[in-house]
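Apologies for my clumsy wording, but are you able to produce some protein sequence, whichever is easiest, and the tokens describing how it folds?
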Amino acid sequence: MKLGDLMVEAKLTETDFQTAPARMIERYRDLDEVFDREDLMMSGDAIRGYQLIRGVLAAYATGGSFCILCDARRPDLIENWYAVMRAVRSCVLRCRLQLLTWQELTAVLPKSLQKFLAAKYGITQ
């Protein structure tokens, strides 16, 4: 989702941020300028957090910001996000990367939507 210069990757029911063969990431422009490859999460010939890396590269290319929206009950996803952020070379870009949990967002949503998220996904403040 894109709102102005903010791109958002929302995870509600998905279990991870996808793993991809390293060759898929290596084809992206600006990879070495944006990331320290040695700090990216490699597992054999696969990179974890493919969607996160792609989102950071898009934010870099557009000069925008990138936000991950995920469930606070999934500390593994949150840790994956921070691992990708740690690999970003530029502190200026790192400052444009954000994390928001559904629980934080729920606090400011209309009551009807809060009830829906609580009933369907167990997400409460």
Remarks:
- The radius of gyration is 15 Å.
- The helical segments are 22-26, 31-34, 50-62, 75-86, 91-94, 102-106, 111-121.
- DSSP finds seven helices and seven strands in the chain.
- The chain has a mean pLDDT of 91.
